[in-house]
Amino acid sequence: MERPLGNLLGLKHQQVRQLERLYRRKVPPGELVTPELARQLTEISWDLHRQVGLLVDRTGAVACVIVGDAKGLLIPELPRMRGVKGRLKGLRLIHTHLDGSPLSHDDLMDLALLRLDAVAALTVNPGGLPGAVEMAHLLPQAEDGRNWTILKADHVTRLKVDFDMLVTSLEEELARVGRADGDAGRERAILIGVSGKNRAAAEDSLAELTELAQSAGLAVAAAILQQRPRFDPRFLMGKGRLSELVIQALQAGSDLLVFDAELSPSQVRSITDFTELKVIDRTQLILDLFAQRARSREGKLQVEMAQVKYLLPRLRGRDDALSRLTGGIGGRGPGETRLEIDRRRLQERLQRLQEELNRVRAERRVRRGLRRRHRLPVLSIIGYTNAGKSTLFNALTHAAVPAEDRLFATLDPTSRRLRFPREREVIITDTVGFIRNLPKNLLEAFKATLEELEDADLLIHVIDLSNPRFEEQMAAVDHILASLGLTDKPVLKVFNKLDRVDPRLAALQARLHQGVAISALDPATLPPLLTRLEDQVSQVAQTIGLHHWAPTPEA
Fold first, then answer.
1. DSSP codes of every residue in 190-243
2. Of the candidates 236, 217, 239, which has an alpha carbon nearest to the alpha carbon of residue 227?
3. DSSP structural state of residue 487
């Protein structure tokens, strides 16, 4: 026979036997609890002077008997998922209250965090008779700021509810609401930003995270920003807000939380354990997005290297079961743990990736040397992600590089020859886009690609003028250039998407930054850019000693 759980210290053998007999009871599907079981429960609770609770599944079987103290009880760890995303656990908690108090805050938190079908509190009257009852269940959608509703009756026999029908309709409504916006087939996520004092900057960052999530193929169920004077070292945000997030995720049919921050390994574990939801941070989202976009062998190597570097410090063992012997007879000591084996394999993989990337860098140096021997100036297009770099590259070179209205559509650099109207040629390269707070591991992994910028004679900084955050994006690109040691490179600022903004704004920005305003989709706006590029390349060619850079003879 199954044993009761919880506070059994000091109980007599006969009392434990009474608790064990509760496992034999059965509740009809349409009832919350039978009057007979309610009375048995309150009598035992009165005798023990402790709260006693039952977890009952949807077949009406008692899955667990729990004993607490006079003020509360602790629910044991439950299975993490019932097998269907965004669903309730399929268990209801019925427990006693010795002091006649209503459902407590802890009861309602258990309802939310454990995604229970319902939580009910039975009042224990003198002599162990059952008294008033309160039952709470979650709502498919918040109503007037409430995520649950409470039903009351002065006795369990007068609680008029068809429990089976209630749970069925609740599950159906949750499923309907979760797929109401037509995002079937896509993983649904709730995005979370936690800010200090600068709310405007946090809102901009969260808006960008939304674009990243959508580009990665996620359906964004909600984007939430919480302001806190201090960040919680374990959960980043308050437990109360996290509890609300669990309910919101259930109502939205989401099982993924994406934080607009770089979470430490311990924070990911704490939030995951508390919410029982999948948790990733901004860095992991960007890495996943890069992994989707990488097409070339080099791009895939760089992304995998960044992922391995991200994963290494996040490995951990959960219990002693990981201390498995790997050797046979004669092995000394406990052997390597599963964790140590995984870490060692990742380190070996990291070393092999580094060696392969070194070979790639050597191949690139050879190609760059060949270009240099032809004495052609090199132009590199840089800029914030989704600024229109690939569109401009295609317009200038008549190439067919994929250009899409989404973040990081281009990861693999592409080079083409560009002939100016005066018959002079240069090499022009399309590069990966930049973003604020670019993960350090990703920046290091893409050094093989970013080395192309070191050999560039002119950088063409493309700016999306239609983006309300274009000034912050310009600053972010400048910051990354500084971190790469490229501040001495000549830069021409090109303000793109002229067709989407007031022409006066474009003219002002071009004048302030000595740049050019264009629309990469409109060839009629490109001649002034070509003229500026040719003039600047002529100046650069003289500076670096390409005095013979002259018009190419006509074919």
1. EEEEEESS-HHHHHHHHHHHHHHHHHTT-EEEEEEEEE-SS-BTTTBS-HHHHH
2. 236
3. T
**DSSP states along 261-297:** S---HHHHHHHHHHH-SEEEEHHHHHHHHHHHH--SH
pLDDT one-digit tens code per residue, 93-103: 999 999 999 99
Two tokens, residue 363: 């191949």
Which tens digits make up the pLDDT trace of 317-367?
Answer: 444 333 333 443 433 445 556 677 788 888 899 899 889 888 877 887 776
User: Strands 188-195, 219-227: parallel, antiparallel or unpaired by DSSP?
Assistant: parallel
Contacts of 293 (CB under 8 A, 6+ apart): 299, 408, 409, 410, 411
Which strands make up the sheet holding 5-6, listed edge to edge?
5-6, 62-67, 52-57, 91-97, 118-124, 130-143, 146-153
* Residues 167, 226 share a domain: no
Give domain status of residue 300, yes or no. no
Using DSSP's 3-state secondary structure scheme, residue 112 falls into: helix
Say how far apart CA 46 and CA 70 lie, in whole Å: 10
Give the whole-angstrom CA distance, residue 90 versus residue 160: 21
Q: How far is CA 373 from CA 57, 349, 367, 370, in A?
A: 76, 36, 10, 5
- Residue 219 C-beta-side C-alpha neighbours within 13 Å: 17
Residues 6+ away with beta carbon under 8 Å from 59 = 29
What single-letter amino acid sits at 551? P
- What is residue 361's three-state secondary structure? helix
359 part of a folded domain: no
Measured between alpha carbons, how far apart are the two ends of the chain, in Å? 94
Does residue 318 belong to any structural domain of this protein?
no
C-alpha to C-alpha distance for 393 and 182, rounded to whole angstroms: 35
Q: Same structural domain for residues 389 and 522?
A: yes
Cα 340 to Cα 250, 251, 335, 354: the distances in Å are: 36, 40, 10, 21
Same structural domain, 76 and 56: yes
Nearest one of 147, 124, 127 to 136, comparing CA atoms: 147
The per-residue DSSP string of 457-475 comes to: SEEEEEEETTSTTHHHHHH
* 65/83 same-domain check: yes
**Alpha carbons 100 and 293: distance in angstroms, whole number:** 60
Q: What is the pLDDT of residue 494?
A: 97
pLDDT tens per residue, range 304-313: 888 888 888 8
268/417 same-domain check: no
What is the C-alpha separation between 255 and 83, in angstroms, rounded?
Answer: 12
What is the domain extent for residue 244?
188-289
